[in-house]
């Protein structure tokens, strides 16, 4: 039977079930999932937020094939007061380094968030520097290069301090807490195909 889950991946958790040193993995949070359930895509060890898990290989292919261009929205807390010019650059594509080669990102949807998004506190919390402001932005991408959001914000002069994937298409973390996993009904997944 096909199963679908939305998981709020906590900070400093690897997107895998197999052990790696003393780092927390998905197995720490989800020990009771069937052995044929795997993450669809990935989130870096130091990123948080929505991770889909399933045993549906077709869905895995659908969401990870770049030509399907599924939007993914991230909330990024960045160092410094981000400027409209930086947002404009993010929207129009910036040059980042991928595997030692220059790559220009595809157009994105970016905006400054006037207030911090309603997210659970991070554990451990972000280091506060009273002399350096920070700000939040929303960034929606249709591609998923390695550490892309972090590379993009750094390229425009605002390094990422905290990164949370809020949504993949219409599925979002809502009021979920880090480590929380919910089963998704097939009708929610069906919308990913349309």
CATH class of the largest domain: Alpha Beta
Question: What is the name of the CATH architecture of the largest domain?
Answer: 2-Layer Sandwich
Q: What is the helix fraction of residues, given as a range?
A: 10-25%
Number of helices: 5
Share of residues in strands: 25-35%
Characterize the structure shown.
The protein is an alpha+beta fold and 194 residues long. It has two domains: 87 residues, Pseudouridine synthase I, catalytic domain, N-terminal subdomain (Alpha-Beta Plaits, 2-Layer Sandwich), CATH 3.30.70; 98 residues, Alpha-Beta Plaits (2-Layer Sandwich), CATH 3.30.70.1560. 18% of the residues lie in helices and 32% in strands. The chain has five helices and 13 strands. Strands 1, 4, 5, 6, 9, 10, 11, 12 and 13 form a nine-stranded mixed beta sheet that branches. Strands 2-3 form a two-stranded parallel ribbon. Strands 7-8 form a two-stranded antiparallel sheet. The longest helix has 9 residues. The radius of gyration is 17 Å and the shape is globular. The protein starts with a strand and ends with a helix. The mean pLDDT is 91.
């Amino acid at each position: 039977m096909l199963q679908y889950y939305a998981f709020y991946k906590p900070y400093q958790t690897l997107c895998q079930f197999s052990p790696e040193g003393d780092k927390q993995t998905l197995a720490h949070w989800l020990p009771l999932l069937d052995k044929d359930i795997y993450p669809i895509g990935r989130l870096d060890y130091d990123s948080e937020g929505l991770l889909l898990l399933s045993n549906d290989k077709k869905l895995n292919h659908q969401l990870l094939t770049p030509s399907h261009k599924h939007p993914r929205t991230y909330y990024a807390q960045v160092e410094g007061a981000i400027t409209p010019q930086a947002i404009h650059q993010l929207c129009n594509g910036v040059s980042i380094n991928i595997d030692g080669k220059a790559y220009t990102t595809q157009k994105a949807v970016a905006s400054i968030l006037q207030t911090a998004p309603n997210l659970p506190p991070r554990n451990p919390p972000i280091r506060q520097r009273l002399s350096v402001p920070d700000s939040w932005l929303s960034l929606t991408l249709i591609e998923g290069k390695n550490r892309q959001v972090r590379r993009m914000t750094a390229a425009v002069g605002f390094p990422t301090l905290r990164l949370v994937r809020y949504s993949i298409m219409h599925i979002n973390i809502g009021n979920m807490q880090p480590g929380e996993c919910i089963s998704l009904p097939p009708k929610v997944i069906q919308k990913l195909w349309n």
